[in-house]
Amino acid sequence: MSRAFLVVLDSAGCGHAPDAASFGDEGANTLLHIHERVGLKMPNLMRLGLGQAVGISDVKPEGLHGVAREVSLGKDTPSGHWELSGVPVPWDWHYFPDTTPSFPPEISAQVAKFCGTDGILGDCHASGTEIIERLGEEHMRTGKPICYTSADSVFQIAAHEESFGLDRLQQLCQHMAPILHAMNVGRVIARPFIGTDASSFERTKNRHDYAMEVPSPTLLDWAKADGRATYGIGKIGDIFSGRGVDENRKGFDDVLMGHLSNLVDEAPDGALVFANFVEFDSLYGHRRDPEGYAAHLEWFDAAIGPILAKLRAGDLMLFTADHGNDPTWEGTEHTREQVPVIGAGVGAKDIGQVMFVDVAASVADHLGLSERGPGRSFL
Fold it and tell me: Which locations, inside or outside the cell, does it occupy (predicted)?
């Protein structure tokens, strides 16, 4: 029985979407601009067809290749992943204004009341690493949590894992999540960090996303309904609120690559493995670091080579992205982009322009699932 591995390179977009101008992103192109700035040596994914999807190679590809377009009105993680799994977002997300303060007073008051403090820190749009460096020492001194947002529909809370407490941070996020979800804020994210001062602060692997519930069954649910084993790697369990996931394996990207390798060895016939590699986005896209992004892409490509070689006859491994985050672009936010769709296990095939929901339909088609969703299979 066939298996399927759906692998998301978080933020690895390949050109502005048709509606990018309405997001302020016309001209953004994450992978092309990295290649133009730094150069990309990715022989494994280029061999499959990444170069054709990005427009940087005319070498005849050996794998499935094309470009996918999103219809959900967002450029964020839940929108992208939900739609890739067959469920476009049926509502408008709530976004906080780029002002200081950013949050309604009643939201800030709820956070402070839970913590027993006379206020919060931050209350603005910010880069996660920058705001921890700027406010981390005051947070440790006062106990006030650091609350910030971005151009995404998100409420993030940073706190010191030891002085504030990881359990306490997670309890705070659990308390705030239903309040913010009722406003159509997509995610509340716990952002723990460690260190003794601004020069040593660093975020830990214990991030946790408290996401809104997906409004209808996804590819993961379809697979479970048909009795298939389902695995999440990285943020997948958080993005889908644990729904449809039998087992989720977490860690930094190097650890996640080990999980993916192990599941290629271990996953039973008929299994679905859904993976997210987030550090392209979190460490390099938001920090506008094209050199670091390029190096991480090349690390990924080198590491995926031996894994591709282990795929069984009948396996499908698709590589795609959920949005863009052009590290050469202005600001620090995601960019509204189309994404590459590259596949191993089904031979050479140019699928051209497809939609995000077609990815879910194609994986379901490959697995022989009863449900296909609104998309059309490109297999």
Answer: Cytoplasm
The pLDDT, as a whole number, for residue 151 is 82
Q: What is the pTM of this model?
A: 0.89
246, exposed or middle or buried, with CB in 10 Å at 0-12, 13-18, 19+?
A: middle
Length of the chain: 379
Domain co-membership, 247 together with 349? yes
334 is in an annotated binding site: yes
Q: Which of 216, 220, 253 is nearest to 236 (CA)?
A: 220
Q: Which residues pair with 8 in a beta bridge?
A: 276, 320
Any known ligand binding at 10?
yes
Q: Is residue 96 a part of any domain in this protein?
A: no
Q: Is 323 annotated as ligand-binding?
A: yes
Does 181 belong to an annotated binding site? Answer: no
- 163 and 239 within one domain: no
pLDDT digit string, tens, across residues 309-339: 999 999 999 999 999 999 999 988 999 999 9
Residues 6 or more apart in contact with residue 2 via CB below 8 angstroms: 269, 270, 314, 315, 316, 366, 367, 368
Per the domain annotation, does 378 fall within a domain? no
Q: 247 and 207 in one domain?
A: no
Q: Identify the domain containing residue 195 by its residue range.
A: 105-211
Q: Is residue 165 domain-resident?
A: yes
For 204-256, how does the pLDDT look when each residue is reduced to its tens digit (9 = 90+)?
A: 989 999 989 999 999 999 999 999 999 999 999 999 999 999 999 999 999 99
Confirm or deny that 123 is annotated as ligand binding: no
- Tell whether residue 33 is among the known ligand binding residues: no
Q: Is 252 left (phi over 0), alpha (psi -120 to 50) or beta?
A: beta
